[in-house]
Every structure is written in structure tokens, then in C-alpha cells.
Amino acid sequence: MTRPQLLSLTCLALAGSTAPAADGGYLFATFRGEGTPMTEQVYFMTSEDGLDWKALNGGEPVLVSDVGEKGVRDPFIIRSPDSPTVYLIATDLSIHLTRHDWGRAQTAGSKSIVVWESEDLVNWSEPRLVQVAPDDAGCTWAPEAFYDESRGEFMVFWASKTRGDNFAKHRIWAAHTKDFRTFGEPFVYIEKPTTVIDTTIVRDGDTYYRFTKDEKHKAITLEHSKDLMRGWRGVDDFSLGHLTGYEGPTCFRLKPDDDGKPGPWCLLLDWYAEGRGYQPYVSDDILGGQFAERTRMSFPFQPVRHGTVIPISAEEMARLGKKWGEVELGATSPQVKSNNLVVDRDAGTVEVPVLPGTDLASLDPGFEASFGMDVAPQGPQDFTQGPVRYRVGDEEFRVTVVDHHNPVLAGYFADPDIIYSEKEGKFFIYPTSDGYDGWSGTYFKTFSSPDLVNWTDEGVILDLGKDVEWADRNAWAPCIIETREGDRYRYYYYFTAAQKIGVAAADSPTGPFRDLGEPLIDFKPEGVDRGQEIDPDVFHDPESGKHYLYWGNGYLAAAELEPNMAAIKKSTLRVMTPDGTFREGIHVFHRKGFYYFLWSENDTRSPDYRVRYAISKTPLGPLEIPDDNLVIVREDGEGIYGTGHNSTIQVPGRDEWYIVYHRFTYPKGIGMGSSAGFHREVCIDRMEFDGMGRILRVKPTHAGIAAVDP
């Protein structure tokens, strides 16, 4: 277990038992904190790949303890090596219900663990309380187990304090059992100079690996041995040993590649110090000790606390789904916007958005259902005559197809900047590559379109890892401008990386772009002591012919660019934050003698992320803020939230304008909590003005716009 009121870390393992191949996926047993009596109980999640998790039982607990302290934490699952029996053990502790003095072990948690058992993962015994720790112990935390083949018994191990040293520190204790009812004499399994808790063990070949939290340094240690009981030595080159503020390790293998190569080991660490929850790290060789951060893992709820994961068969996945699952459909057809399927179980309907031009008379959505449920019919269907009836498992749905143009890009993208390329005669969108926890993407792409409706992925145009020497993280919020000297076109691409702003140049809107070798903006303007140096916007002033750069989070800065477009004229730099609503995402355009400044208000993780504007007669202000200056806001009736960080595009030669923005992914975004802030998608809607030049409020839509002929 972890310390009270802190999260924990986890590493998926077979735990030394005979287990099925993960042809069905994985089962994750966890708890959710101490907010209510029910959050300190056992929750189940499943995943097909070990990365994207779905809640069972509607996100409610599947096992509830009514013994001991009537609360459980740190659930751990292990299979019997010679029978279908599965055991689930957990800490007997309720921080919500019981007051504890953590300095006095006799009043701080029991000497026992809570045990359930099952033969099919869905029908479980009543919980039983079993003492495992010595009579003078307390704080019996985070029990786990490993099958000791040499003894033909399970070794159960946990952290406890004892009276022998005045409850000064935790050690890892252990005891042997054959049936999780009768336990042998407890003994000290791990003795260190400092307090240790949260141990997990995995086996790879003939070597055991042991991850443990060192409480003194708040760090994770890694040891290895050929013998479960002795001979443990540290892995000196463990690459995560320097991390602090992590705990609760758990480790497992991801699925093999298509060619049969074993999947990497996945170590989950709970970053409790930052409240970030599980952080995944992967390695092909545990003994080598080199773990790389994996950027993508999603959970259906937060927080997810100290638990364990086991591989499960397809039969077990189907059984769990039938007992506690909810129907989830995916679509594999490239013609379907798979992120935007709308499944309404109560109404028995499914809405399938498709790409423009899809042949609806012969469309196979390529449905795949959660928990291995069968889907029928298979193959192409005629959707031109109305809904087509499908059966998913035991349920029937009426499936309709809609030609919605929003989102305009397939997948997760955000912070879109758009231009019309005179050279190419096409539109180009330059977004942030989204879908990465903590906005941790490292590359930029571009997309082209002849008409603002049909978009082509032009691929990666700048990769921080390969193309930028001064930053390797947080590739955010780019902007671009097309310049022309004679017959030569030149493109300058301004981008955020590691909370600095860089610039790259190319002779084509699709690159290759070459970074100038150092950040353009890596400082705060004088008088600014907050915010970040992010979200650039580049603007060509049609009246003066000059170019300007704008940027900032928490503040708005602006400066004229040098003619080479690679430096600012610092003498022109000024701070021009419009008001307290300014957060980020500045965008500037010119129309009929006025300069429009649009910005985003609130946090991008908020459903109320939205756009406001001001007007000026010059590119550097002063700014005039209209009484009603909202440009676009959430549309609850349509399930559209988080509408912000925009750019705009004027159709060449016409006073016809469109706003390009991102929103939470639809329909799942609003239920994703803060994760919606990095699962966003790009949309386009019409933007209009009144006779005084004021921007009329834009209503965000799913339908989007009709094709434009530039």
C-alpha cells in the first residue's frame, strides 16, 4: 500500500502463477481513494491492449468489504498454478471511516488482509479477514503474492511496522500459504536501512525482479535475483531511480507484436507528489534497467489508485463484459470517423459519421464491439434507405450514417492554424498533435484541402526528436505564414516546444522545414512574472507590409519581426494583455481597416474554454473590447464543449470568413474529465460580422460547412 492519502504505482505481472495468454486483454483491479466509503473498495477495468482502459459496472465497485475496517485498498490478484481459482487480496484499511494515528501502529491499520476468491472472475466469495502480520505489528499495507515453485506454496508479502523498534519504520514481511486461509509464521523478507513499502515482483525467464519504494528518498528501487528468497542485488543502471515523488510499483508485459516478438514490459508508477496518477514506462530488458516513458494510457476515471493487472483470455473478457460491461462500438473502416460514433443504449441507436463522398449504398463500418461481443450483420450494407439493424451481443441497434463535416481532421488534433497557399492553390491546417497525456506530443503535421471540407494528411513536417536540437518535448500550438519575393515563396513556421517558441523555414507548405537552431522566444517581457512563452501567432499587416509576432499564456506580448522573419525587433516589444479573461491562443487578422484580436479564455481542460475578441486600429493596439465580445462558446444541446484556440481564414477575394477551432472530442470528451483537454479535435464553422464590423456569435456545429470554391 501507499502512505495514507497518497496515490500508488503499479506493474502488471503474472505474479508467478500459471495464467492464460492475454488473447482477451487485461483486467485491472484498483481502488479510487478515500473520498467516500465506496471509493475504498475494489473496482475493475478491462483493456484489450493494456493502455486504454474501460470501467466495469458503470464505474462502481464490484467487490465491497464488510469485514475489518470495512474498507479495502491496494487490491492484488493472483491465479492458482494448478486450479481455476483466482485470489484477490487487499489492505484492510479505511481512511475515510477510521481515524488513524500513523505514528502508533497499534491504532493505525490492522494486522490482517482481506481475501476474496473466484473460479471465473465474476462470481466471488464473501470477503474474509485473515491475520498475516505478527501480533505486535500494525500498518499492514499493500499485500502482494508470488507462487514459490520450490516450496509449492504462495509467498504473501506486505509492509508492516512492529513494536520491536517502537514502530519506527516499515519493513517488508512475508508468510507462506497454500490456500490464503492458513498462513505460516511471518518473517522479515526485505530489510533496508530505511523504511520500504509497496513491493511488487515479476519474473522474466529464470530471473526475478523486485520493485520497491524507498520511503526516505521517495524513489523506486529495482533489484534482481535468481532465487525468490535470497541473493537480491540492485540494478545499478535503473534509469528511473532518480525519480522522486513516485510510489506503488506494478509491472506487466504488453501484448506481442504482429510478428510474435514479445511485447515490452510496462511499469506503472504513481506520481503521487504531483497528483498526476499513473505514469507508464516501458522496457524490452528489465535487467538492463532502461525504461522509457510511454506517453499514452487512458483511464475511465481518476484517480486510479494502487492496484494490479492480470492478463485474461477472450472467454474471460466476454464473461466480464456480460456481467458488468457496457456495449462500446468501434469502427475500423477508413471512411468512418471512429472517434465520433454516438451509441445510445437506451434508445437503441448508433450514429456513424463518415467522410465526405462516402458511398452509403455499400458501406461496411467495420464494427468491433467491446468484450469480444459478436456483431451482425457483417460486410457492406445499404444505408441510403434508412437505419440498418445490427445486433451487438444480446442487444439490437438501429444504425444510421451522417455526413457531418466536423471534425474536419480524423483523430486528435488541437490549436489549429490555417492558411491559403497562393503557391499551391490550397488550404493548409497546422495543428498540435493531440491525444497524448499532459500534452506530451513531440511532432507536428499538416493537412491540405482544396475546399475546406476534404482534407489530406500531408504527414509530419517537424519532429522535435530529429529536427530540433534545443527542445524534445511539448510540441504545441504552431502558426505559419507564406511570404513571396518575386517568384519565390517562403514559409516561416513558428511553434512551441518545451515552453519556448522556435521558428523553422521551408520552400513548401509541406516542408521539409528546417529549424533555425535556437529558440526565438525564451524569455518573459519586462514586468511579466507569470505564464508561459507559448502559442505564437504570426501576422502580415496589409497596410504597412510589416510582419508581427504575438505570443503568451497569462499575458499577451507582441513585437515586430525583423525582415529575415527569424528575430523580433525588441525595441517594438510590448505587453498588451486585453483584460483578465485572456488565457492564451492569440490570433490576429485584418478586415476593412480594423485589426481583430481573438484569444482563448479559461483552461483548455474546461468545458468553458472559449474565444473572445477585441478590435484595434493598429497592429499593436490600443485594444477596444466590445460589450459582448464572445466569439464562440460551448453548445450544450449539441454536446459540444471546450471550443477555443482558434484561427480564421478568409476565402481569397471575398468577404467570406471561417473560424477554425478545437473542441473536446465528441461525444466522449465531456465524460473524460481533465483528459478531455488533450483529446481534442479540429472543427470549422462560418464566421460573420454585423454592419459595424462586430463579430456575430458563432454557433459551433457538427454539420460544419459546405465545400468552398476559392
Describe this structure as you would to a colleague.
By secondary structure, the protein is an all-beta fold. The chain folds into three domains: 25-324, Neuraminidase; 329-402, Immunoglobulin-like (Sandwich); 413-687, Tachylectin-2, Chain A, CATH 2.115.10. It is built from two helices and 46 strands. The strands form twelve sheets. The chain has a five-stranded mixed β-sheet, with no helix packed on it. A hairpin with an 8-residue loop joins strand 9 (153-162) and strand 10. The longest helix is centred in the middle third of the chain and has 11 residues, at 314-324. The chain is globular, with a radius of gyration of 29 Å.
Features:
710 residues, 4-stranded antiparallel β-sheet, 3 domains, mainly beta, 5-stranded mixed β-sheet, Neuraminidase, Immunoglobulin-like, 2 helices, disordered N terminus, single chain, 46 strands, 2% helix, Tachylectin-2, Chain A
End-to-end gap: 62 Å
Find the count of extended strands (DSSP E, 2+ residues): 46
Task: Tell me, rounded to a whole number, the average pLDDT.
Answer: 92
In the CATH hierarchy, the third-tier topology of the largest domain is known as Neuraminidase
CATH architecture of the largest domain: 6 Propeller
Q: Report the biggest beta sheet as strand number plus sense, adding barrel if it closes.
A: 5 strands, mixed
The unreliable regions are: 1-18, 103-107
Give the neighbour order of strands across the main sheet.
Answer: 22-23-27-26-25
CATH level 1 name of the largest domain: Mainly Beta
Strand content: 35-45%
Question: What class do helices, strands and sheet pairing give?
Answer: mainly beta
Give the number of helices: 2
Fraction of residues in helix:
under 10%
What spatial form do the alpha-carbon principal axes imply?
Answer: globular
Which radius of gyration do the C-alpha atoms yield? 29 Å
Domain module tally: 3
